[in-house]
Amino acid sequence: MGEIKKLISNVKEHWNTPAQGNYVPYKEVATIGAAGFGIHWASTLASAIGLSANNFIVGASIGLKPMDLQIMLILANLVGLPIAVFRGWFLDNHKLPGGKFIPILLRTPVPIVIISTIFVWLPYENWEYRTKVVVVWFMFVILSAFLGFYNESFTYLKQVVSPNAQERAHVMSISQVLYSNAPTITNLVIPTIAGLTWGMDNIWTYRIIYPGFTVVGLIVLFIFTPKMKERIIMPKRPVEYVSITDSLREVAKNKYFWIINSATWLGFLEGSSGVMINWTFNYANNGENKVYMGVATTLIANAALWSMLLAPFMIKWLGKRNLLIMHNSINVVLYALLFLVRDNLLLMCVIFYLTTFVNTFQNVYIPNIQADMRDYHQWKTGVRVDGLFTPLTLIGTVLGFFTGLVIPAIYEKMGLLDDYTVLYNDELRNNLFTVLIICSVIGSIMNLIPYLFYDLTENKHRGYVNVLKIRAMFEDYGNNELDEKQLVDAMKIIKGAKADLQKKKVDKTALKLAKKQKDSDAISLAKAELREIRKHNEFVESLPIVKDELDKFNTERYKARLTAAKETVLLGEVYLYADWGVEKAAARKLPHKTKEEKEIRADALRLAREKKRSARLLAKHGNDNLTIPDERIPEEIKNREINTSKERTQAKKELKAYTKGVSVYRRITKPYNDARNLMIQAENYTHLAEIEALYESVKSKS
Predict the structure, then answer these.
(1) CB atoms within 10 A of CB 508
(2) Nearest to residue 380, comparing CAs of 564, 599, 554?
(3) Cα 232 vs. chain centroid, distance in angstroms?
(4) Distance (Å, rounded) from C-alpha 125 to C-alpha 119?
């Protein structure tokens, strides 16, 4: 009871103002939960549409064959490849009024609701098979284009809600508990109503029951989404153009990207047995239990609540990597147990309850792992990339062209084509379940293997984020844009690094004594002291990365980079690097035995490649045709008085030409700009004593 009172008191105290060291007040956590509720409900119908044999709408309701659906999905993904590349580029290079992701969430849901509603109301009953195939595919492609922006924006928004990884886990956990009620309600209400009316395998369920949820979702979404906040640690300079090719090249070097995505690609079979519970309710015993499916799936989904609440504590206790390994190991066992209970509906529900409990942990730790990976990438390259991770993930889409054929092939091989009534046959259904269980066991094992190589610990990530704060502080100081909070946060980190702090011993003697004496005040005090010690030790463990950052311009690597930067700047902003080939050849001959030698060689090769791209672009476009960035030009075009469609077309044409010209100019001048930025950063780092004096002045005032 005392812990509950303490929790309530803590929520009241930090409802509008976050706790020290945190960024998100509880009011905003509640806002994220409410917004997530609307975001999920607005896409309820759209998310129910998919090109797979497991999908009730296109499979059982419209009656498309499993293999045809897979071929349609492959073709849709081929069309989606350039759309996904554009989406990634757009998200990283455009910041609309209101943020990077929030404006997208406010602009895409209405088209999604309209398109998905039209999708289910088309008269499929009156069409021949080929017509249904073409129309379903076309509508799915259009819907997917909007859903891609919508879903990715919400995913990325959750990852930038806080730069503090542990707080981010808590925020995701609590907010997911709130907005997970959206699918919980739909999973209970829709199948129950459907069981009493048309059934989940009838198109009228999706025409009548679903649309109401989407309208309510839109209302909730538009009320709460504008109140959410994005927190990306960046200097206060404008967002710079990020070249797709440069981003892809850098992302390709990010080992954590490959670990995370290869786990997904290899584990494509893991969810194969997920259809068993719905198919058992709908088709076992001649479908007499279908009316109970909504209740059963809701009870099973309730397991997610407990794992979402436990996830932050499990992450803190085990770490994300160990939690993931534990999750997948348990999954292997649970899927194997399905062999023994597939004929017992009650025990099958128990197993799926447990798998739901275990699998829901990933709803919290996977977005956190993704966010950690992006922070690591920003630390390593100096460029913040979110959307442009997407193009390389399309490798999985291409692989899916082949791996996605496996399950449909199994369905058709075992007798499931366009007539889903064959699932009333117990023998056919159970034989199919056996194969799907084997697939899930194999998928769980394959999903686990890559993460055995994942070593981005919580302490490493904490160090990277601290470095980003320090870099932003120095840059904003140099630009006279440094605010007091930013100064204090960064200087506390620097002071800790310079003080050479040591870890403290975790001694639980006082806590054990207080528990023995049953002294609640002493217990609370002892726990608070232990928390402070652990917090101190975590900070100390992250300091080596900070020390390396503060000392980097004294290393041979950065001395070499600065020498090359000064030479590049002396050549001027626009310069034809005719000798890039000579520089590349010289870079290749550099020694590369030690770690530092390898880094120096890699830096030299990277600079030579940038000069090569710059030289080729300059030779192609010429000095006289370059568009020098001038913010007044796009402002003039946007604010121009337009009275005719011809004038509107001309304005769009001019704006497009200007944007393209600026893009070319920035790519040509990239070697110069990168060199100048490095020199500015080195100069800013020499002003640490002045910043320290400013910090002491601010501290004395407070």
Answers:
(1) 11
(2) 599
(3) 13
(4) 13
| Cβ(576)–Cβ(619) below 8 Å | yes
The contacts of residue 129 (CB under 8 Å, 6+ apart) are: 63
373: β partners = none
Element housing 404 (H / E): none
Q: Is 64 helix (H, G, I), strand (E, B) or coil?
A: coil
Task: Tell me the CA distances in angstroms from 645 to 11, 633, 648, 649, 650, one per residue in order.
Answer: 55, 21, 5, 6, 9
Is there a contact between 443 and 270 (Cβ–Cβ < 8 Å)? yes
Q: Alpha-carbon Rg of the chain, whole angstroms?
A: 28
Number of other residues whose CB lies within 10 A of the CB of residue 583: 18
| Cα 546 to the center of its chain, rounded Å | 26
**106, 98, 112: which is closest to 220 by C-alpha?**
106
| DSSP structure class, residue 286 | G
Q: Which CA distances in Å does 64 have to 61, 79, 132, 544?
A: 8, 20, 8, 58
Q: What's the per-residue H, E or C state across 355-368?
A: HHHHHCCHHHHHHH
Beta carbons of 56 and 209 less than 8 angstroms apart: no
Can you name the residues that pair with 96 across neighbouring β-strands? 99
Helix (H, G, I), strand (E, B) or coil at 483: coil
**Nearest in space to 365 (alpha carbons), one of 274, 260, 280, 477:** 260
- Which residues, including other chains, have CB under 8 Å from residue 637's CB and lie 6 or more apart? 651, 654, 655, 658
Measured distance CA(411)–CA(415) in Å, rounded: 6
- Where would I find the H helices in 425-478? 426-448, 458-478
Per the structure block, which two tokens stand in for 342? 């597939």
Q: pLDDT tens digits for 160-188?
A: 888 777 777 778 777 777 777 777 788 77
The span from the CA of 530 to the CA of 509, in Å, is: 11
The amino acid that residue 5 corresponds to is K
Q: Determine the Cα angle at 392 with ends 104 and 581, to 5°.
A: 120
Q: What are phi and psi of 275, to 5 degrees?
A: -75, -10
Residue 57 has what DSSP assignment?
A: I
pLDDT tens-digit readout, 368-419:
888 888 888 888 887 777 766 766 777 777 787 788 788 888 888 888 887 7
Cα distances from 284 to residues 342, 426, 439, 645, in angstroms, run: 11, 7, 22, 62
From 206, 50, 191, 68, select the one nearest 124 (Cα to Cα): 206
CB atoms within 10 A of CB 402: 10
Dump pLDDT digits (tens) for 331-360.
889 999 998 888 888 899 999 999 999 988
Cβ contact 444:268 at 8 Å: no
Task: Find out whether 250 and 377 touch, Cβ atoms under 8 Å.
Answer: yes
Instruction: Give the residue from 538, 502, 494, 532 showing the smallest Cα distance to 166.
Output: 538
DSSP, collapsed to helix, strand or coil, labels residue 342 as coil
User: Nearest 10 degrees: CA dihedral of 204, 207, 208, 212?
Assistant: 150
Instruction: Identify the burial level of 608 via C-beta atoms within 10 angstroms of its C-beta, where 0-12 means exposed, 13-18 middle and 19 or more buried.
Output: buried
Please compute the mean of the pLDDT values over residues 110-131 and round it to a whole number: 92
